[in-house]
C-alpha cells in the first residue's frame, strides 16, 4: 500500500519508522511518503494560512499550497487513491473504516491545522479522487497529525502479513462488535489475586463460554451503546 501524508509537521511522522509500521515499510508492504506543505509555498515566509473571509477567530489554511501538494501526491503513478482529511467535523473512524481502508492500494492524508482548510480544497480534490473527512471521536485536537498516526496504525496492522498471527486480529476488541475478554498469564497467584480457575481447567468449551460471558458483561458495563439494536 502506498501512503502519502501532507503536513506542516513532517517530523511528527518520524515515529512511523519504529515498531509494526517500521517493519511493514522495511518489508515493502507499505510505501510511506511524508511531504511538507510549506515546500509548496512560493513566498519568503512559506505562508500556509490567512485570515477567514467573513471574519472570526483563528486562521484558515490557504488553498494554493494544498492544491500543489495534492497535485504531487495524485500525479501518476497515483493508484486510484482515497484522500482522507482528518477533521472533527468528519464521519467517525471505526474498525470498519480501518478494515475498508486496509483494502485500498493508495491513501493520501491531508493534515489540516488552525481552524481548517479552505473549503474549495475539498471540493476540488473530490473532482479527481474519492475524498473522506474522518474524525477520531467527539473531542478536538489541534491538528490532524496525531489522528492520522492513529488511523494509519489501525489500517496498516490489518494488511495481510503485517501482524504475525492473524488469529490475534480476529479475537480482539471490536472485530465481533464486543469488547475483548480479560487476559491472564503466569503466575497463577500474584499479590493475593488468583487467575480465574476456569482458565486453568483445560476445559476448552468452558473457557470459550466464560470468555464470551466476560465479553458481554464488560460491553454491557462500559459500552452499552455497542449492544443497542439499530
Ligand atoms: Cl481527525 N482532527 C482533529 N483536529 N481533531 C479531532 C479529530 C481529527 N478527531 C477527533 N478530534
From TrEMBL:
Keywords: Cytoplasm, Methyltransferase, S-adenosyl-L-methionine, Transferase, tRNA processing
GO annotation (BP), single: tRNA N1-guanine methylation
Catalytic activity: guanosine(37) in tRNA + S-adenosyl-L-methionine = N(1)-methylguanosine(37) in tRNA + S-adenosyl-L-homocysteine + H(+)
Gene3D superfamilies documented for this protein: 3.40.1280.10, tRNA(m1g37)methyltransferase, domain 2 (1.10.1270.20)
Signal peptide start and end residues: none
Cellular location(s): Cytoplasm
Cited InterPro entries: Alpha/beta_knot_MTases, tRNA_m1G_MeTrfase_C_sf, tRNA_m1G_MeTrfase_TrmD, tRNA_m1G_MTases_N, tRNA_MeTrfase_TRMD/TRM10
UniProt: S-adenosyl-L-methionine binding residues: 112, 136-141
HAMAP family per the UniProt record, alphabetical: TrmD
Functional description taken from the UniProt entry: Specifically methylates guanosine-37 in various tRNAs.
The protein's name: tRNA (guanine-N(1)-)-methyltransferase
Organism whose genome encodes this protein: Humibacter ginsenosidimutans
Amino acid at each position: 500500500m502506498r501512503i502519502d501524508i501532507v503536513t506542516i509537521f513532517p517530523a511528527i511522522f518520524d515515529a512511523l519508522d519504529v515498531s509494526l509500521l517500521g517493519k511493514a515499510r522495511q518489508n515493502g508492504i507499505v510505501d510511506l511518503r511524508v511531504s511538507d506543505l510549506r515546500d509548496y509555498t512560493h513566498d519568503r515566509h512559506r505562508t500556509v494560512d490567512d485570515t477567514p473571509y467573513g471574519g472570526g477567530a483563528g486562521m484558515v489554511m490557504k488553498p494554493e499550497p494544498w492544491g500543489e501538494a495534492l497535485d504531487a501526491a495524485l500525479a501518476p503513478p497515483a493508484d486510484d487513491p482515497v484522500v482522507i482529511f482528518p477533521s472533527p467535523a468528519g464521519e467517525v473512524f471505526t474498525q470498519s473504516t480501518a478494515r475498508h481502508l486496509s483494502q485500498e492500494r493508495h491513501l493520501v492524508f491531508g493534515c489540516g491545522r488552525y481552524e481548517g482548510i479552505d473549503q474549495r480544497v475539498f471540493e476540488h480534490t473530490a473532482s479527481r479522487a474519492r475524498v473522506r473527512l474522518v474524525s477520531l471521536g467527539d473531542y478536538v485536537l489541534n491538528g490532524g497529525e496525531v489522528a492520522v498516526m492513529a488511523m494509519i496504525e489501525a489500517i496498516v496492522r490489518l494488511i495481510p502479513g503485517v501482524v504475525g498471527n492473524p488469529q490475534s486480529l480476529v479475537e480482539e476488541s471490536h472485530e465481533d462488535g464486543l469488547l475483548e475478554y480479560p487476559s491472564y498469564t503466569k503466575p497463577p497467584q500474584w499479590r493475593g489475586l488468583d487467575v480465574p480457575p476456569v482458565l486453568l481447567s483445560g476445559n476448552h468449551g468452558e473457557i470459550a463460554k466464560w470468555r464470551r460471558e466476560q465479553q458481554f458483561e464488560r460491553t454491557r458495563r462500559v459500552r452499552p451503546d455497542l449492544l443497542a439494536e439499530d
